[in-house]
């Protein structure tokens, strides 16, 4: 019996030891392969770069850039950042939609074949943000870990924000090994940061990313690049930033815009338009790269310019048109917002008369602008202008200057303000809003007896004031208001 028990115990020990060694080996190998996969995500030849380049309509070969790409002044700075040569800072790229921020980043990645770089698109939903981060880093968040079957709480029994923190911890380990081997920091690019919601969850996410960016910039481990169209992201990062560098990406100046248009036209139609046509196109759409690209691809370029302006004007009118003096009081809140936007657009058009020049023969368009605090004063509201920036109706630059979102949008402002009777219509809307607000602050008392022809008779009587109603020879509704005796303390004499 003892021999059988000893044999059983030995078998259990052998099996237990075998299972323990197997589990330990699996656990260690899993952690090793997690870091190995993440390290491979930063190796050259990432197919994500090719897909992004196709989506952005950029050339894939290294020799095509000279003929199909306009070298912006900021491109050399972006190349240094993406190549890991610019250390000690993390970066915020800010500019209007369509100015070429993402295209410059992709071009810089193409030059180094994506070596040491990971790029992904932000999203308002934290779960989707987590998945996109995991895809860029080739990290599964332990969702394929078999050990979770034997634990009471699985690794994914948590929040998306904690998963993002765990992923960044893994990135730190990979960056330490890579810096010892290569001597350059990793680069993580988060595109379209403005898509993150401006709420508590979004602020927590931005704070988490910024804390890591500050820490990694100080240690030269990872350079983080945030790309945003909207000003509110800059405001949020500015509060806690010590190592943030801001790169503002604006429209192309006139000579570069015309050169870009020539290159685009040569690419799609194998022709070079005349200087007069190129000048007129620039006058209509400015130096916005996405506008120039659409114009260059079209058969009738001037008609496309007119269509771009019409779309911008329609977008503004659909969002912000004012309803005049016949406005119903149910839409007053929306009309406050719309009237403030129209007042600001009118002020920008009027400011052109005060400017020394609005068009430079060499630089091109000089759009009128107001400092952010002055724009808020003009609108008489401080909470509207950032929402207008998100809708791409106005633009807030990194220097806190408010102006039209594009040259076609400003031309649309001019046409709207120049309409016959526009200013009277705007003033009527403002007066109607003021009247509705005044009604909301007014309380009306109606004495129906007086409407029916009655009269009130008020006279002082013994112990108070007597109020009576006289109507058609009758006297009724007698009310006596007693006067309080100052010497009476409310107690009766005993």
From TrEMBL:
**Could you name the domain of life of the organism this protein comes from?**
Eukaryota
**Provenance organism:** Podospora anserina (strain S / ATCC MYA-4624 / DSM 980 / FGSC 10383) (Pleurage anserina)
Can you give the residue ranges of the AAA protein C-terminal winged helix domain? 318-437
Query: Orc1-like AAA ATPase domain: which residues?
Result: 91-222
Quote the Pfam families the UniProt record gives. Answer: AAA_16, WHD_AAA_fung
InterPro entries the record matches: AAA_16, HTH_AAA, P-loop_NTPase
> Where do the segments described as Disordered lie?
473-494
Q: Acidic residues: which segments have biased composition?
A: 480-494
Protein's recorded name: Podospora anserina S mat+ genomic DNA chromosome 5, supercontig 9
